[in-house]
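Not sure how to ask, but would you mind making up any protein sequence you like and the tokens describing how it folds?
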Amino acid sequence: MRLLHVNEFSLDSVVNSIFIVGINLGMPRKSLVIDFGNKENPDGSVYITQPQSHPHLPGVSRHLFCHNGILSYLQTYVERLESGIYEPCTIHPESPLSRGICLFPEKVSVAVTNGVEVRASARWFPEPGHGPMNFGYSIRICLAESDSRDGEVSCQLVDRNWEFHYEDGTINRVSGEGAVGKQPLFFRQNDRSTGFIDLGPAGNGETYTNTVFSYQSQSGPVPGSHSLDVLKTTNARVRGTFSFRPGSIRKPTGPLFLVDVGEFPLHVELPFY
């Protein structure tokens, strides 16, 4: 989401007290909109909508972020930054200068298995229309600081096995090689520094030191959920495992072992930030 000065966009995007302040340049394009309010809504509101539609017109699909006004929205956002729910991060792992704020909460699900730590969380991805909800999820993997093994340690991600438990009670099981086409090789050196080598079909072969491997994906439409009544989605969740090879896939030093992905929910808490 790119922040805009209002003159960068178009005077047509300003109607009375409504301003487009950010735009997602992906497809479909979406805008973050601030409505400074009127007599009926003196506290204002923050919502997301499609930029090609005027957000003040009746019938336009919009997803309200905050019911309690702009000040409440910004205050809660700052509180979440201060408490570490949202943290600074490298937005694109292959671009160290792409620093920003990660809106995937850091501490929803944390599991450590055989010295490998996996953190997972999900966020609702509002989309145009009134169908099932779609969630994005973020996975962060590293060698755990609590691992007390001495000397050099290495292991490589081989494959994944996921269970998507949907709101209507159905379960979708997904298995595949690596994660988003990558099979990172994690390492710890004698000086306790850690990192990973970006291997696999989609890997770039680069080595990243003192960096957490992270990736994002999407749940797809969640059966039994509906974007017009997000609070009724309370039971959808995800869990799974990764398979790891000690040493590396090419030079194994032991049998495969499983690493848990702790269960994390697919739901929305309002206000939505």
